[in-house]
Amino acid sequence: MSILKEVADDCLLCNKCNQTYKFRICTGLSYKKDNAIELTCEGCGDCYTHSEERSHFTYFNFEVWREVDNLRKQSRGFTISYRLSSSPERALLFINDNKEIHPEIWINGHRVFQAKEVKNYWNYSKELIKKWKKNEEIQAKYTRKENGTIYELDERKNG
Questions:
Q1: What are the residue ranges in the chain where pLDDT is below 50?
Q2: DSSP strand E in 8-78: where?
């Protein structure tokens, strides 16, 4: 493992920002004593992980995760969460039929790779939520679920 770490630290370059990845071995991650390896780019925040318990690697961006966390801390009247989903949608807004339950923005960490995108989805969601609170029509593609409505936040699809 030390040879792999040395090679990774010296030779693996991020294709976004051309900086070398930092290699890390993570041991005892869960009650199952799962072990993993992680490659992280300090330049842009890209991160790849693979564990013994999974058959595939996971990719996400730390900067996107941090932006979601920062916005979650300052949200009032709605919330935002970071999810790693196989869904093709980049971001969704869930509005529960029960008005006492706050709307929630779902950011898909497998599809959103820049923090500024999170802020754009945040601002667009605020517009939709204002319309919802005023009982105005929301012009966005949506799917009805048994307890609420899920709106797609990709503005390119919504006009």
A1: 159
A2: 21-26, 36-41, 46-51, 58-61
